[in-house]
Design goal:
Layout lengths: L2 H11 L2 H13 L6 H8 L3 H13 L3 E6 L2 E6 L1 H12 L23
Antiparallel strand pairs: 1-2
């Protein structure tokens, strides 16, 4: 992944509403969700939802597929994994990561 693409994706996720939308679509898995489902679940106005979905789509983090009268949005898992790979490519200076080492231990348990 190019640095510019990583920055675009990280910038798209650097907003609480967009991060919440993306995380909800990750939970939904390959089935995805319609904008109506997302708006109801996250209590978002249609215009606000549309703006944030557009930003996540522009960053390459979502796919949108027409499904009858609706559009079904899905998290792009390949893009997500590519971003995670980019962020961790040089973890522990390229040596195998031992999850017990300080550089790889997550101290935030609020996930």
């Amino acid at each position: 992944m190019e640095t510019k693409a990583a920055v675009t994706r990280l910038a798209a996720l650097a907003h609480d509403t967009r991060l919440g939308l993306f995380r909800r679509l990750v939970v939904a898995g390959p089935a995805g969700l319609t904008p109506g489902d997302l708006a109801n679940e996250l209590a978002l106005a249609p215009a606000t939802l549309s703006f944030h979905l557009k930003e996540l789509s522009r960053a390459g983090l979502l796919s949108a597929e027409p499904s009858g009268r609706f559009i079904r949005y899905r998290a792009d898992f390949a893009a997500m994994n590519a971003l995670l790979g980019f962020l961790t490519a040089n973890c522990c200076e390229g040596s195998a990561c031992d999850l017990e080492t300080a550089c790889c231990t997550a101290t935030d348990t609020s996930r």
